[in-house]
Write a structure and sequence with these properties.
alpha+beta, 3 helices, globular
């Protein structure tokens, strides 16, 4: 019985680990607040503010739970609400990181 519980916990951990930034970005919606995005995607790797526009970046994150490809993702806010979001460059496993998305 103890072994079954450990196996079940392992499966749950594996499923949760499969929820990557690349998959979660599809749950972002125009109009969300910055805190809602952070609650969904986690702490961003960087941000930039220009007037009433802010952009946060998630750099070198896994694109999916089924491969090792990585990419950069961005979310842009205008007056505190999401106006656009998406991926920058997606790199295959082992490809060098070239930088972060900047607007």
């Amino acid at each position: 019985m103890h072994l079954k519980k450990l196996m079940m916990i392992g499966c749950v951990v594996a499923l949760l680990a499969g929820c990557t930034t690349g998959e979660k970005i599809h749950n972002v919606q125009v109009g969300m607040t910055k805190q809602q995005v952070i609650d969904l995607l986690g702490t961003p790797d960087g941000d930039s503010v220009k007037g009433s526009t802010e952009q946060i970046q998630y750099s070198n994150r896994l694109a999916s739970g089924w491969g090792w490809d990585k990419g950069d993702y961005y979310v842009t806010f205008e007056n505190g609400k999401v106006t656009s979001y998406g991926s920058g460059e997606i790199r295959s496993a082992g490809a060098p990181v070239k930088g972060i998305v900047v607007f």
